[in-house]
Amino acid sequence: MAVSRPRSEGGMFWEINITPLTDIFLVLLIIFMVTASVAVESASHVNLPVASNTSPENKGVLVTYTANHELFVNSKDVPESDVESELRDALSRVDAKVVIFQGDRSVLLGDMVRILDLAKAAGAEQIAIAARRPAPGEGTSG
């Protein structure tokens, strides 16, 4: 910020005020953070199957397979050719060698078996399948 000092000639003084500029940058930063989190959240949305007997599993590596045949390993978009190496790297960083498969309802059984076979080849000792609990009044058939 420039500091102005009085002149005896009576000329004009120009002073740069950076407060509005800082406000604009902060607003843009907030907008960017919100849109980035929404984009990441919506990229891997899956419609989980319903099961009445579910238990929370927090440890391990999460593999997400969407209805559009997109694969995510711990929320990172991975092409299917690189899934095994990415899983091997992710499993080496966790203590529990558990792979949690989070697949959309429309995922074919053959696709799920192929992905879980890659997880076993990458070193997974256990495999869990993610499901959601039914809402009150909702059946488990869907």
Summed up, what is this model?
By secondary structure, the chain is of the alpha/beta class. The protein contains 3 helices and 5 strands.
Supply the helix-strand structural class: alpha/beta
Radius of gyration over C-alpha positions, nearest whole angstrom: 26 Å
Strands side by side in the biggest sheet: 3-2-1-4-5
Strand content: 5-15%
Global mean pLDDT: 78
Low-confidence stretches: none
CATH topology of the domain at 61-129: Nucleotidyltransferase, domain 5
Query: Care to count the β-strands?
Result: 5
Note the gap between the termini.
Answer: 63 Å
**CATH architecture type of the domain at 61-129:** 2-Layer Sandwich
Question: Main β-sheet, in a few words?
Answer: 5 strands, mixed
List the topology elements:
Layout: H1 19-43, E1 61-65, E2 71-73, E3 76-77, H2 83-92, E4 98-103, H3 109-122, E5 126-129
Parallel strand pairs: 1-4, 4-5
Antiparallel strand pairs: 1-2, 2-3
Word description of this protein:
The protein is of the alpha/beta class and 142 residues long. The chain has a domain at 61-129: Nucleotidyltransferase, domain 5 (2-Layer Sandwich). The protein is 35% helix and 14% strand. The chain has a five-stranded mixed β-sheet, with helices on one face. Helix 2 crosses helix 3 (109-122). The chain is elongated and about 85 Å long. The mean pLDDT is 78.
